[in-house]
Write a structure and sequence with these properties.
136 residues; alpha+beta; YjgF/YER057c/UK114; RutC-like_sf; RidA family protein
């Protein structure tokens, strides 16, 4: 049996340039691409503020999930990439993550990296969701 795939786009020009989509649904699974903190015009949001960038990344992720009628309760795994592993940055990113997922905590990893897509991006987050597992 073949599972259908549905791809959604954020409309960002780099999706076609690089060859990816914001999120892909395959059966009951949704995979949200690495998401950086951009504003409505595609500019970096809150340069230098890890907590605010994490909040914005998660807003974008939740908007992508909503297109599949999914929410934070469906997320089973997140991956967080940060360019600064200082305790303050980890705490700020963790607080943003907890604000979204405290009621249904997913498996999660935070990894320190040397750089992201542009110098103003200091946080990037990916998410995987399973639609039939709400609240489990």
């Amino acid at each position: 049996m073949t599972k259908s795939r549905v791809r959604i786009t954020s409309g960002a020009p780099w999706e076609d340039r690089v060859g990816y989509r914001r999120a892909v649904r395959c059966g009951d699974q949704v995979f949200v691409s690495g998401t950086v903190s951009v504003d409505a015009d595609g500019r970096p949001h809150a340069p230098g503020d890890a907590g605010a960038q994490a909040e914005r990344c998660l807003e974008i992720i939740l908007a992508a999930l909503a297109q599949f009628e999914a929410g934070p309760e469906h997320v089973v795994r997140t991956r967080i990439y940060v360019t600064d592993m200082a305790p303050e940055s980890q705490a700020a990113v963790g607080a943003a993550h907890r604000a979204v997922f405290a009621a249904h905590p997913p498996a999660s990893t935070m990894v320190g990296v040397s750089a992201l897509a542009a110098p103003d991006f200091i946080v990037e987050i990916e998410a995987d969701a399973i639609l039939d597992q709400a609240g489990a």
